[in-house]
Amino acid sequence: MSDLETEIRRAQAGDLDAFESIIRRFEGPVRAWTVARCPAGGDADDVAQRTFIEIFRRISEYRPGSDFRAWLFTVARFQLRAEITRLQRIADYHQRYMPRALADELSRRAESENTDAGLRLEYLKTCLQKLDENTRRILAERYDEGLPLEEIARRANRSVGAIKKSLFILRGKLHACVQNKAAGEIA
Amino acid sequence: MSERLDELWSAYLEGELDAAGMGELQTLLEAEPQEISLAADMYEIHRWLGLIHQGEDSESFAHATRQRLQADREVFVGSLKDRLRNVAQERPKTSRWPKYVAFAAAGVALILAIQLTQKNVSPGVISAANSTAPALNPIATLVRAERARWEPDVALLEGQRLEAGALRLGTGSAVLLFDSGAVVAVKGPTDLNLESRGTLRLIQGRITVRAEGDAAGFTVRTPAGDARDLGTEFSVSVQVSGASEVHVRQGEVAWIPKADAPPSRILHAGEAARFDSVREAEGHSIVFAMQSLDDFVKQFSASIPPATPAAYEGFEYPAGEMKPASASGGAGWAGAWRTRRGPELTREADANDSLFVAPESLAVAPLSETSGGALEFPPGLSVRLRQLAEPLDLGSDAVYYLSFRLRRVGPAVATGREQSHFRLTLRSSAEYWGPSIGIGLPASGHPTLQLHGRDTYVAPVDIASDTNTLWVLKVVSGRARPDEAFLKVFKPGEALPRFEPAPWSVATDRFPSAGVLDLVVLTGSGPGKHVFDELRVGRTWDSVVPKE
Known about the structure:
The structure holds two protein chains of two kinds.
Chain A: H1 3-12, H2 16-37, H3 44-57, H4 68-88, H5 93-96, H6 100-111, H7 117-129, H8 133-144, H9 149-156, H10 160-186
Chain B: H1 3-13, H2 19-31, H3 36-55, H4 58-90, H5 99-118, E1 138-151, E2 161-163, E3 165-178, E4 183-196, E5 199-211, E6 219-222, E7 225-229, E8 232-238, E9 244-250, E10 252-256, E11 265-268, E12 272-275, E13 284-285, H6 293-301, E14 311-313, E15 320-322, E16 355-358, E17 374-377, E18 382-393, E19 398-409, E20 421-427, E21 437-441, E22 448-451, E23 455-458, E24 469-477, E25 484-490, E26 506-507, E27 516-525, E28 529-538, H7 541-544
Helix pairs in contact in B: 1-2, 4-5
């Protein structure tokens, strides 16, 4: 019996420690998946938490030997769908948060069977390590410290437009890097 | 991507796109459908960068999820316990079962009750009583309480943030504001479990919910099924037996008998139904009878004395130039206004050492002008300070609010790249360069909330020059809990909410601090002039946001 099956059996007997181990085992891929698929304005981590809570409620339904990961992502998909439904009820959602075309594309991706987000997130981390120090600093100021572009530009002694352009190009490069790594993995 | 699409998409990811830009982006994406996939890829990278830099704390996630699970399980056990108690209390006289079965049921209830008390019950609130519990993300705020007695006996403050977990109101009334925007009125005795920003479980008692606009979809879970809001106002009650009633005052409510199932019934305005158990999916109609949330609030607001700020400055001084030391009006201050001194000084000196009082106060519709004048900050650097009689003690369990009115006159940016900036910073007189909380209007027009002069949070709203605005800062401090700060900037004509807003314009992450902030430091700089007025510091929303 695999470690996972053992943990599931213990969780089925009400052992929260065992279920916490299951959460730790899968939180990375589930959060990477919900964060990438959850439309703007949604609470991706709340969706991920609700996924695990729902799994725990229904843990007795799990049959040994079946694909736990597939079940987990099916539940995540359902929880994300509920979040998307909630967001869509916001009258001016598409004017305030996200263009409809993009929201539709995210919904389409959320319905697909592709659940390799965790792996792609790891690729992204590897790609980040290859960046030079200045670029990493700008990313940290943008995503970690949440500084306004004006402040980032001032610190870098560059114009706001240049910083904005750099971030845009950088995201494109990081995307290409992740794609290359994924392609290399497949090859 | 076309150059324009690039430009708009970049602005979107930086949070700088307004409604018009969003409309244009939508049109361009529809015209270039082949670009949607690439845009989604960029969004994915953008979100992952956020996750990597900000929130990928696996330990906290696992812990917080476990806490929610425990709360969920305990609510379930608690509900079961109530039902068993009901069996034990109601059945003996009429039951066909032998007495020992009833005793056994009561015994099980007792064991469950003991287990409950022995468990590390997930805290529902941030308070001294459970200050040793690990930090969870708050999901709601207590915005009103009248003669409220909470069980176990904890003192909850108005404005206090509430975490996922159990909450029992023994007696009195309270109003909770969920982060989704849903308002929930509670009358004791009522047992609740706050599950998420959009969900609560009602174990026993009665609540009234108003969930409109962004809050639509708010769900009340009961032992007999879930009542999901479809943009409405409704009440839900749960009896000891688990039987649940739903009364709909406005809009519609979907009744969902069990998780993942489709709604079994849609209740419309003026309808009410009772559901005795999850097996009774359709329920049966009953007479509609519920008090509106407005009436509920009015009823107990009448018994609360008017809120007054702990400190107030309305600049009721003669118009013109005056020495700061002569400006000692208002209430709740330890001394007059002053300029910087000693270690407070920096290399850049003030452009002048006077106070300039404008003859008229600032009106921010729907708030009208007041009797005093307003404080003017002319172009150039001016720093003015005043000490509060009652400081903000970030090392205590407390909630503080601060409000003021502000207007920038003239350019935000001059030709020489000099930029206008206005800031209000709360500092410590004992440690001036130590912990601080600042709010400001930089040249970009996006209000900021800054911690310790370092971490800056930017509000996604745009304040143009020559616009009167009302600013409200809220600080929730904890003795053994991290603190939080929130900022809301109201533009003219924007309705002032009855309770504090959800969401705010911008909020900080939770931050540790034990500073005692007793200095209000106002800084105006750059080519623009700033007009500042009606400074209030208090312990409740009502004390700093006057009624229209």
